[in-house]
Write a structure and sequence with these properties.
The structure is a single chain. The protein is mainly α. Helix content is 52%, strand content 0%. The chain has two helices and no strands. It is globular. It starts with a helix and ends with a helix. InterPro entries: MscS_channel_C_sf. One of its GO terms (cellular component) is membrane.
Length: 23
């Protein structure tokens, strides 16, 4: 999650989990 924020990808945590369940 932190890595995504550093990459300037602003998406809700639940959405991220849906897109990338691996993380």
């Amino acid at each position: 999650y932190k890595r995504f924020k550093e990459n300037q990808i602003t998406i809700p945590y639940p959405t991220m989990r849906v897109l990338m369940p691996d993380k």
